[in-house]
Design a protein that fits this description.
The protein has three domains: about 120 residues, Transcription Factor, Stat-4 (Orthogonal Bundle); about 170 residues, Up-down Bundle (Glutathione S-transferase Yfyf (Class Pi), Chain A, domain 2), CATH 1.20.1050; about 170 residues, Immunoglobulin-like, CATH 2.60.40.630. α8 packs antiparallel against α10 and α10 runs antiparallel to α11. The chain has a four-stranded antiparallel sheet with strand order 1-3-7-5, with no helix packed on it. The protein is of the alpha+beta class. It contains 15 helices and eleven strands. This is Signal transducer and activator of transcription 4. It holds the Pfam family STAT_int. GO terms for molecular function: DNA binding; DNA-binding transcription factor activity. It is found in: Cytoplasm; Nucleus. Keywords: Coiled coil, Cytoplasm, DNA-binding, Nucleus, Phosphoprotein, SH2 domain, Transcription, Transcription regulation.
Amino acid sequence: MSQWNQVQQLEIKFLEQVDQFYDDNFPMEIRHLLAQWIENQDWEAASNNETMATILLQNLLIQLDEQLGRVSKEKNLLLIHNLKRIRKVLQGKFHGNPMHVAVVISNCLREERRILAAANMPVQGPLEKSLQSSSVSERQRNVEHKVAAIKNSVQMTEQDTKYLEDLQDEFDYRYKTIQTMDQSDKNSAMMNQEVLTLQEMLNSLDFKRKEALSKMTQIIYETDLLMNNMLIEELQDWKRRQQIACIGGPLHNGLDQLQNCFTLLAESLFQLRRQLEKLEEQSTKMTYEGDPIPVQRTHMVERCYQWHLPFCERQPCMPTHPQRPLVLKTLIQFTVKLRLLIKLPELNCQVKVKASIDNNRRFVLCGTNVKAMSIEESSNGSLSVEFRHLQPKEMKSSAGGKGNEGCHMVTEELHSITFETQICLYGLTIDLETSSLPVVMISNVSQLPNAWASIIWYNVSTNDSQNLVFFNNPPPATLSQLLEVMSWQFSSSNSRHSINIC
């Protein structure tokens, strides 16, 4: 069944959401008439490839012409009128910017998939219900629309950069022509007019440079605002869902969608950086007093690399106890996986990660704790790194005596695995840090039930993923929360639900 057929079978509340994002940019009539053909095209790839986007736009218009021919035979006057109007609007609006129509259609298809996923997502207990809200869905839509708008704005500044290059070439040609003129010609009226023309071109060039830099500055500001506010909120929501998954609840999908947003923004910033490099080349060839490029470029390039990207995709877990994540036994290996929330080939093997335990110096990690992220570590081509052979070891006492291995450990004491991440790109070094959810250390398997109870208590009660002093003053868990967790645990023990994906 096609995606569009699935959409049409949704409940009315979901159909109303679908209706909101179809407008004159991409009318629903076209989506309906060309459903299968539209779904068979790679609009995502075309949104980054002008040649491919041009071909798809031409094919879209051809498909419309074929539909017009069909309905003309049926003498459906209203549909004929609408299709002619739509064709005229599409050709006029996207003829000079075919990648924009690819962005629009790609976003619509992605939004449909999101709504279909939401419609098929079962909601049960109060904890699961707390993860679902109309405000969250609305924020997700706003994020995707803003990402698409930023990407389109960068395409516009790309055209501005090319226009500036052409304008400067014309200015350079005219200026060199004057320089080669005879002295007698330089005093002529035509020469004076040419000088005035050059001055007007220089004024226009200066205005366009300032305008282009202003647009780029605004794009960087909007990208920074989106990354550090709305997208971080989305990521926090996903972390909360991950907490619930760690104690047996469902892990709703969405990390790939988040990664796609981060990736599109990073690609836009990389494209903007290349545009800034072109502007620098233009300024090197021709500068003047008050040239804005040398003043603004360096700071703008630096702002293109302000990221918050590493994320603990799979929380620490002992392979011997896959249904008890976040409980670690000393001298027993555990695995943990980190993922970079942008998917760019140029970053492959350029991201180094060092794993350690929180800074209380009571424990150290044995095994290979420094690795490079690689696309080979992931099935979907994401940049990931998985530590498979780490072992926590308790340090010897400060008195230099025998270590504390085997002695009683407080199962309400929380620790975290910290990841120091270093990204080397285009001569720059970017240092970032992230941490796992709190873990409980044990020295004997007899402590496992109490440790697991602490993990459940923590993740049921708080959204804070880094509160290592939670048990100094823990809040009570409600009966409804405990009943829901018990249901998850029962399902898990009967192999109907697995939590080792957290």
